[in-house]
């Protein structure tokens, strides 16, 4: 016995009285062959990716079941001859579920093998911070102030001035005056 999903698309103009017999027929084929129907979902009318028999939309129906491969062949044969069914797709999902379960067990096994993390011993801070590996010389280091970068208190363009006044700047020094040239020039 294997687990399958049967997704089929029925004409969008088909009523529930036309769709339900198709779904019941598929369920009867499964149960008569010794399988079980796990889940049945009607997704409603959805837009198709491309036109199928002059239809742009279709009613999607999903049935998940457990059965033998011979049962799947009979279901597909019946869906192929049904007039209201536009397309169908059968997917075997038990292998996928097995792979997922296998990955989950391997992940748990690795987690059990891994020792509990031990805290690293506290080390004294180095006198001179080293640049991280792979960084460029002269590139800013996180946590270390950059002398060439603007200070965070510097006003941005168009922004308000800082609240604290800046200290007054000293006047620039006056150029030296040559007294001999000043005396010779007439006013």
What does this structure look like?
- There is one protein chain.
- This protein is α+β, with helices and mostly antiparallel strands and 187 residues long.
- It contains 4 helices and 4 strands.
- It has helices at residues 16-32, 69-81, 94-113, 179-184, and strands at 2-10, 36-52, 55-67, 85-92.
- Helix 1 (16-32) packs antiparallel against helix 2 (69-81).
- The radius of gyration is 40 Å and the shape is elongated.
- 10% of the residues are buried.
- The mean pLDDT is 79.
In short:
With 187 residues, this protein is an alpha+beta fold. It contains 4 helices and 4 strands.
Topology readout:
Layout: E1 2-10, H1 16-32, E2 36-52, E3 55-67, H2 69-81, E4 85-92, H3 94-113, H4 179-184
Antiparallel strand pairs: 1-3, 1-4, 2-3
Helix pairs in contact: 1-2
CA radius of gyration is 40 Å
Shape field: elongated
Strand order across the largest sheet: 2-3-1-4
Percent of residues in helices comes to 25-40%
Order of helices and strands: EHEEHEHH
The helix tally amounts to: 4
Could you give the count of β-strands?
4
What is the average of the pLDDT values? 79
CATH architecture of the domain at 2-97: 2-Layer Sandwich
Under CATH, the topology of the domain at 2-97 can be stated as: Alpha-Beta Plaits
What labels would you give this structure?
four-stranded antiparallel beta sheet, 4 strands, about 190 residues, Alpha-Beta Plaits, alpha+beta
